[in-house]
C-alpha cells in the first residue's frame, strides 16, 4: 500500500511512545492561541481580524457546520486518491496556500514568504504568492523547488507596472496569475484602525515594487528616503478593474488567469465568456467586506456557472473536514489561509509543514472512515447534505 496523507497520525503516535510530544498544536484553536502570543499585537490583529464587527468572518466558519458528509460503507476505501489536475498540472492534493499580504512579517526570521515556499516544496502543496511580500517574487519562486507556484496580482493603476509584474512572474516560473478583484480599496477594519496597523504604510512587504524597474523609474530618488516609495505605492496600488480591462489583462500573458473574488454566478459566466481560465470563489476570508454571504454558500452556484472551468475556493477553512466539504460542493482546489499563517508564526517552515500535513491527514482519514476513496466519489449526488 502506498503512503497516504493519513499516515501522519502514525508518526505522531509512534513518536509519543518515545516521549516525543507534538511540537505544534493539533487544532486550529491551539494554533491561533499560541500564535496570538507569538506575534506582535498589531500583527496579530492584522492577521486574525476581519471587516466591521467580523460577522462575515465568523459566518464563513459557521457555514461549514451546516453541511455533513453521508457515510458510505463496504466500498473498500483502503487507499484514497486526492490528486487533482489544475491548469495542466498534476497535483498530489487539492490544497493550496492562499495568498496573505503580510506573510513575510509572520515568520520568526521575518522572511515568511520564503519559509512558506520551502514548506510548499516539502509538501507538494502549491503556493499562491502575494504581490505584497517581504522578499521579491523571484526569491520566493526559487524556493518552491518542483512544486508549482501561482502569482497573486493586485493590479496597479500604472499599466506599465502591471505588465512588468506579470512578466516578472512569468520569468520567475509561476504557473498561473491570480488577479484579486476585491481589494483595490481597503475595507473597514476596526482592529487595524484602533492600532493604526497598516504595514505597507510603514514600508513593509513592498519588495515586489521596490525591486521593479518600472516602479523605481517612477521615484525621484529610488535609493533614498523610503517614504517616497511608500507614498508612490499608495498612489499606484488600487485599480478598480472593470470588465473592459479583461482583454488588456489577457493580452499581458499566456499564463492561465484566475479571477479571485467571484461569488455571483453571473460574474462567473461573464468571466468565462471573457476567456479567463479559472474562477476563485472567495470573500477574502471576511477581511474586506462585512455583512455578506459566507463564501461557502456561493460555492455550488459558482461551480455550476463555471460549467467545467476550474474553481478555486477559500474563506473559513479551518480543518481537513472543511476542505472535504468544499471539495464535495465542487471546488477543484481549496485554499488555506489563517491556519498556515499561525503555523508559520510558531515555527516558520516547519510550522507550515505541520499545518498542511495535519489538514491533509484529517481530510484523508475522513474520506477513509466515511467511505470516499476519491474526489469524484465525494462529488456524487447525496454525498453531502444540509445538517
From TrEMBL:
Q: Which cofactor does it need?
A: FMN
**Family, per entry:** Belongs to the FMN-dependent alpha-hydroxy acid dehydrogenase family.
**A Pfam match:** FMN_dh
Which Gene3D superfamilies does the record associate with it? Aldolase class I (3.20.20.70)
Q: Any idea which positions bind glyoxylate? A: 46, 154, 189, 260, 284, 287
In the UniProt entry, which residues are flagged as the active site? 284
Alphabetic keyword roster? Flavoprotein, FMN, Oxidoreductase
Q: Where does FMN bind?
A: 99-101, 130, 152, 180, 282, 314-318, 337-338
**Which residues are in the FMN hydroxy acid dehydrogenase domain?**
20-387
Protein's UniProt name: Lactate 2-monooxygenase
User: PANTHER family this protein is in?
Assistant: FMN-DEPENDENT ALPHA-HYDROXY ACID DEHYDROGENASE PB1A11.03, S -2-HYDROXY-ACID OXIDASE-RELATED
- Signal peptide, first to last residue: none
User: Any keyword Glycoprotein?
Assistant: no
Amino acid at each position: 500500500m502506498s503512503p497516504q496523507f493519513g499516515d501522519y497520525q502514525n508518526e505522531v503516535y509512534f513518536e509519543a511512545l518515545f516521549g516525543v510530544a507534538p511540537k505544534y498544536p493539533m487544532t486550529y484553536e491551539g494554533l491561533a492561541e499560541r500564535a496570538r502570543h507569538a506575534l506582535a499585537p498589531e500583527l496579530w490583529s492584522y492577521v486574525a481580524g476581519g471587516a466591521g464587527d467580523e460577522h462575515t468572518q465568523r459566518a464563513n466558519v459557521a457555514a461549514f457546520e451546516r453541511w455533513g458528509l453521508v457515510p458510505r460503507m463496504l466500498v473498500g476505501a483502503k487507499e484514497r486518491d486526492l490528486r487533482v489536475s489544475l491548469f495542466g498540472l498534476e497535483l498530489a492534493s487539492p490544497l493550496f496556500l492562499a495568498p496573505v499580504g503580510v506573510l513575510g512579517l509572520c515568520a520568526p526570521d521575518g522572511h515568511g514568504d520564503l519559509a512558506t515556499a520551502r514548506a510548499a516544496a516539502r509538501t507538494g502543496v502549491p503556493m499562491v504568492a502575494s504581490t505584497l511580500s517581504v522578499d521579491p517574487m523571484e526569491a520566493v519562486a526559487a524556493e518552491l523547488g518542483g512544486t508549482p507556484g501561482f502569482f497573486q496580482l493586485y493590479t496597479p493603476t500604472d499599466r506599465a507596472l502591471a505588465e512588468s509584474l506579470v512578466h516578472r512572474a512569468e520569468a520567475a516560473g509561476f504557473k498561473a496569475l491570480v488577479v484579486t478583484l476585491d481589494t483595490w480599496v481597503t475595507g473597514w477594519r476596526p482592529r487595524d484602525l484602533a492600532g493604526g496597523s497598516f504595514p505597507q504604510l510603514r514600508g513593509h512587504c513592498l519588495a515586489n515594487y521596490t525591486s521593479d524597474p518600472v516602479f523605481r523609474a517612477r521615484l525621484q530618488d529610488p535609493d533614498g528616503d523610503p517614504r517616497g516609495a511608500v507614498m508612490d505605492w499608495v498612489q499606484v496600488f488600487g485599480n478598480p478593474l472593470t470588465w473592459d480591462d479583461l482583454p488588456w489583462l489577457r493580452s499581458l500573458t499566456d499564463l492561465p488567469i484566475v479571477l479571485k473574488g467571484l461569488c455571483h454566478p453571473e460574474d462567473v459566466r461573464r468571466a468565462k465568456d471573457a476567456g479567463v481560465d479559472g474562477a476563485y470563489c472567495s470573500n477574502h476570508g471576511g477581511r474586506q467586506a462585512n455583512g455578506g454571504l459566507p463564501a461557502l454558500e456561493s460555492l455550488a452556484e459558482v461551480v455550476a456557472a463555471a460549467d467545467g472551468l476550474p474553481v478555486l475556493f477559500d474563506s473559513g477553512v479551518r480543518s481537513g473536514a472543511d476542505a472535504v466539504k468544499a471539495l464535495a460542493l465542487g471546488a477543484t482546489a481549496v485554499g488555506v489561509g489563517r491556519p498556515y499563517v499561525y503555523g508559520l508564526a510558531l515555527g516558520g517552515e516547519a510550522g507550515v509543514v505541520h499545518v498542511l500535513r495535519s489538514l491533509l491527514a484529517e481530510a484523508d482519514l475522513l474520506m477513509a472512515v466515511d467511505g470516499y476513496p476519491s474526489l469524484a466519489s465525494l462529488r456524487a449526488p447525496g454525498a453531502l447534505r444540509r445538517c
